[in-house]
Amino acid sequence: MTTRRALLLQAALFSGLPAVTALTALAQTRRGNPQPPTPACVDENGGNHASGLTPEQTEGPYFKLSSPQRASLLEPGMAGTRLRLGGLVTDRNCRPLANVLIDLWQADAGGAYDNSGFRLRGHQFTDAEGRWRAETIVPGVYPGRTRHLHVKLQPPRGDILTTQLYFPGEPGNTRDPIFDKRLLMTVAGDEAAQIARFDFVLDLG
Ligand code: FE
Q1: How far is ligand 1, taken at its centre, from the CA of residue 156, in Å?
Q2: Ligand 1 geometric centre to CA of 194 (Å)
């Protein structure tokens, strides 16, 4: 993928990231309803940004404690389609949550997890505006499951959310009994590189 194309994809997926909160506050002021119980977050394109709490899912058999702190899970020579991930973590009221620990783990391009080391495992913290970003590869599929990423989010105060993220258009999505379309990422790109976005909403606030 050309640099220009990658930048355009990134702009399309990440536009409005810092503006979400301000726009939401503005929209609420205009409606004269400063604190609705379950507000929709509105991005700068007028789209729904976060319409509900992020559902929980099983952690599965391959979680490991004490992953290294790193935003890039890429290692030299790693096979697979490059994948850049990112999005926001907010509370129920669309307020960005800073310092949320995000722990990612996933299968390699062949569908295997590293259970002896920490390959394709890592954690990071959201920044002051609730943003997270990561660099990795598109995970391979393994028997019984559609393509997915595993994630745990631990806010400074509050419960851990364990869940999984999915890829749109995967043939396995309809066959996987735990697939949940509310956990679909927005994905753009091709076989060389992909960019994906997911905004988490935690039951806080
Ligand atoms: Fe898995």
Answers
A1: 26
A2: 20
Tokens of 137: 């590869």
189 CA from centroid of ligand 1 (Å): 23
Task: Report pTM.
Answer: 0.81
Splitting the chain (205 residues) into consecutive groups of 10 residues, what average pLDDT does each group show? 57 51 40 45 51 92 97 97 97 95 98 98 98 98 98 96 98 97 97 96 94
55 Cα: distance to centroid of ligand 1 (angstroms): 16
Report how far ligand 1's centroid is from the alpha carbon of 81 (Å). Answer: 18
Listed in sequence order, the residues at least 6 apart from 199 whose beta carbon sits closer than 8 Å to its beta carbon are: 41, 49, 50, 87, 88, 89, 90
Question: What's the 35 CA to ligand 1 centre distance in angstroms?
Answer: 38
CATH superfamily for 3-202 is: Aromatic compound dioxygenase (2.60.130.10)
How far is the C-alpha of 176 from the C-alpha of 147, rounded, in Å? 9
Q: Per residue in 97-112, pLDDT tens?
A: 999 999 999 999 999 9
Q: Where are the domains of the chain?
A: 3-202
- The whole-chain average pLDDT of the chain stands at 85
